[in-house]
Structures are given as structure tokens and as C-alpha cells.
Amino acid sequence: TVLVVDYGAQYAQLIARRVREAQVYSEIVPGDTSVEEIVARKPAALILSGGPSSVYAEGAPAVDPELFTAGIPVLGLCYGFQAMARALGGEVAPDGTREYGRTELTVTDPGTLHGGLPTTHPVWMSHGDSVVRAPEGFTVTASSERAAVAAFEDTGRRLAGVQYHPEVGHSPYGQQVLSRFLHEIAGIAPGWTTSSIIDDTVAAVRAQVGDGRAICGLSGGVDSAVAAALVQRAIGDQLTCVFVDHGLLRAGEREQVERDFVAATGAKLHTVDVADRFLAALAGVTDPETKRKTIGREFIRVFEAATTEVAAEEHVGFLVQGTLYPDVVESGGGSGTATIKSHHNVGGLPDDIEFALVEPLRALFKDEVRRVGRELGLPEAIVGRQPFPGPGLGIRIIGEVTHDRLETLRAADAIAREELTAAGLDDTIWQCPVVLLADVRSVGVQGDGRTYGHPIVLRPVSSEDAMTADWTRLPYEVLERISTRITNEVAEVNRVVLDVTSKPPGTIEWE
Ligand code: XMP
């Protein structure tokens, strides 16, 4: 394991992902982890992340000099680079040098880290102050306009550092530099691959569950499907999957689970058909938060009843959850597994059943989950699915949710998705909510007659993490095809409009 020591930059997760792309497993530890704790984990190498702009910045975290003398290979990035320089007797000038954004790097001595790279190439910088003298024993290997010492290495001690950020896409050779550190300087053999992830996870699940029984709720989304598929591969029929069809799904989603997921995995599936119950509960509800609460409450009740039924028949002791690594990092958790009293953690499981959690995706990032899903043969419609909210189409009908309105929205949404996929835009778009303004009518004309129908809103957005988003500039021809088809094929809709609001100020969903 390579440990990424996080000094508070927003880049730690990105660094961990890049290390994994070099086929080396990595985890993130907080910057205040003690040297003893780090050494006890026997890491194959450490990567110190960026952080504040300078080691002289106010509140800059302390970096224990013993990190560099413990015999572990270390790569310092940005703040980690300055900290390494200072700890080992180099000099960081508190001169307020600032260098932000794209910068030309000049490789003065390729050494090991920059071996085979162009003599000058662009890198992404973000620092105040700079290293002016490398510590004894280090070779300075690169410089930039404002940083005389932009990279150094001491391959004997297996220590190296760069002032720039190799982990970001704006440093086009960054991945090579990280790989060279891991493979050449630290001497770590690549080998952490999708198939090794599957083998290791399957073995771990088998060891955890033994001959016990497990249950897994499927949502139609990628995380629960891949988690279930891994557990299915590990314990076969000891797993039962539960799928709640609340009637707020998009066209084809139930079939993807019932037919394609089952065909790919052989999983035992228990579908609960409760569309009418949800419609009854949602009757008269128009406020977005009340809708969410209503849907959430009904979902919990239905899932609880189904779980109790299955659990009683099968003596289920384990609950499978699709928790991902970013959730684990953000909640400050380690890589262990937890036993929970069900209602503490997982919304609405029966109070009197105690489950042990099985979390096969706990060490993985989303893109890795998708790769695992593909290798397990799951349908692309599930593995490649864009984010879709738990309350489903219920929060994409502005106004009361009714059976007919759901049918209208489902038809329009299916057309939009079909055309976006056909235009090859699925990877460009983060997600594209299709929204029905059910209480708005506008006048139109079709054939010889006047129409008085509802507008459909297209909300294509580009985003990294859904926290911020921009509206996606879709080609006019694609918009035209979607608009023509929806107004022709969906009788109640006579207008298609495009949402051109970023987030903030808009949110991605309309409710
Ligand atoms: P907003 O609308 O807040 O959405 O910009 C951000 C992301 O979260 C999704 N979303 C939800 N997901 N339950 C969910 O599971 C919800 O109630 C919910 N509301 C929004 C939304 O699709 C987007 O990806």
C-alpha cells in the first residue's frame, strides 16, 4: 500500500486515484497521523500531498522530519516538496514568490523522475514561496521561471519531490512522473488490477460471511449492482437481492435489473411492486421536501417489510451496502468493517434485527467500481449509468405526481436519453435531468389545431462532483432532434425548453 498523506489539499483523492492507475493500491491518511502509525502500516511508499501555499503559510501543518528518515520511499508534492526540503536541511525562501496555473517546466537533469520526458513541458503550479536550495545529497532536476528548484531527487535514499502538481490533468506528463517514482525509485511492482480487486474482494467476502446469509437492496444504480454482483460471486445463493419498484423509475430500469442484472449474475431477486402505494402516498403532495420525505418514508417501510420477510425465511445476518472509498475518507473512517445496529446507520431497517455490514466497494473509487462491474459482465446500462436521484422521477415532475404525468415524463426522458446516447454524448454530460412542468400550460399549434400542453425542460449539466455544475453546450442538431421527437411522440407536450443555468445559482435538479 502507498499512503497518500493529506495536508489539506483538495488533491489527495486525485493523487490516490493516479497511484492506483499505476496499478499500485493506495489509501489516504490525514496529515496529522503520527510517524509511528504510518510506519506500523508498513507502506511501500508515501506521497505527501500539496496543502497550504507555503511551509511559512499561517497554520501550515507540521511535517515530522522523521518521516524522511524511516527508510520509506517518499515523494513530496508542492507543499510536501517544500516540507521535505526544509526537514532535510534545504532552504525555502519566504520571499512570497507566487506561481499559479500552467507553467513551463525545464528539465535540467532527467534523473530518474523525469527520465524520457521532453526537456521543457507544461506543468500545473500552485505555490507561494519556493525552494531555493535542495538538501544535501539531492540532485536538482528541474526548474521553472519562478522556482529555481522545481524538482529534486535522492535515489539512494529513495526520496524525491516536485513543486508542481503531477496529479492534475493540466500536467500532461504527471502520470508518467508518478509512475516513475512508484516503479523506478520506490521499486514497487505494478499488479493492482481490476481482476486482482475482484479476486481479493471475493475472498474477503467469503471469509467474512462464511456460510451465513446476506441481503442487498438494488436501486438500479451502479454501486448497489456491483456490490451485489461481487457478493453473488463470493457466496452465490446465500445472497438475496431486493428491488423496490416504486413506480418512479425511468423507462427500462426495472427490466435492466430483473432481466439483465439477473442474467449476468444469476442472483436471486425479490422484486417488490409498490407503484400504487407510492402514488397514493404522493397524492396532493407538491412541496419538494415533503415529496422527498414521503418517498423516503415509504421506501424505508417497504424495504423494511421485505427485509423482515426475507430475513425471517433465510436467517439473514449480513446486509450488503455499496459504500465507496470517498465516503469512507470523508467520514474519517478506516478500512475495517463495522457491525451496526441497523437503524443507526442504514435508514429504516428493522430495529430488532442486527446485521453485520458487508461493504465490498469500501476501498474503491467510482471509476474503479465501474471497471469491476464491466469485468463482472454487468449490463452497460447499469454500469455506465449517470447519477439518478433516489426519489426518481418524483422530483422531476414540478407539481403533483400522478400516474399519467409519470407516463408523460418517462416517455420524454426516454427520448432524450436515447438521442444523447446516439450522439455519443454520455461521457460529456454528467447527467441530464428531464423535467415536466406539470402545472404550466402553453399554447401551441400542431397540424390544423391549437394545442394547450405542458413544457419539458432539458437540464444537461457538466460537473466533476455535482457540487458545482455548468450547463452543457449541446450541439443544436441534437437539441433539435430531441425537441422534434418529444413534441411529436409525447402527446401532452408541445414545447421543449433548455435550462442554461449553472450551479450555483441553480441546483441540478429542479426540486
Ligand atoms: P442538486 O439538485 O442538489 O443535485 O444540485 C446534486 C446531485 O444530487 C442528486 N440528487 C439526489 N440524489 N436523493 C438522491 O439520492 C435526492 O433527494 C437527490 N436530490 C438531488 C442530483 O441528481 C445530482 O446528481
TrEMBL record:
Write out the catalytic residues in the record.
78, 165, 167
Catalytically driven reaction(s): XMP + L-glutamine + ATP + H2O = GMP + L-glutamate + AMP + diphosphate + 2 H(+)
Q: Which residues form the GMPS ATP-PPase domain?
A: 192-385
Q: Please give the superkingdom of this protein's source.
A: Bacteria
One of the record's GO cellular component terms: cytosol
Specify the pathway. Answer: Purine metabolism; GMP biosynthesis; GMP from XMP (L-Gln route): step 1/1
The keyword Cytoplasm is annotated on this UniProt entry = no
A GO molecular-function annotation: ATP binding
Output the InterPro entries linked to this UniProt entry: Class_I_gatase-like (IPR029062), GATASE (IPR017926), GMP_synth_C (IPR001674), GMP_synth_GATase (IPR004739), GMP_synthase (IPR022955), GMPS_ATP_PPase_dom (IPR025777), NAD/GMP_synthase (IPR022310), Rossmann-like_a/b/a_fold (IPR014729)
Which enzyme type, at the first EC level?
ligase
User: Pfam families given for it?
Assistant: GATase, GMP_synt_C, NAD_synthase
Give me the residues that bind ATP, please: 219-225
Supply the alphabetized keyword list.
Answer: ATP-binding, Glutamine amidotransferase, GMP biosynthesis, Ligase, Nucleotide-binding, Purine biosynthesis
List the EC numbers from the record: 6.3.5.2
Instruction: Give the protein's function.
Output: Catalyzes the synthesis of GMP from XMP.
Checking PANTHER family in the record gives: GMP SYNTHASE [GLUTAMINE-HYDROLYZING], GMP SYNTHASE-RELATED
The record describes its quaternary structure and partners as: Homodimer.
Put simply, this protein is called GMP synthase [glutamine-hydrolyzing]
State the species of origin.
Pseudonocardia petroleophila
Gene name tied to this protein: guaA
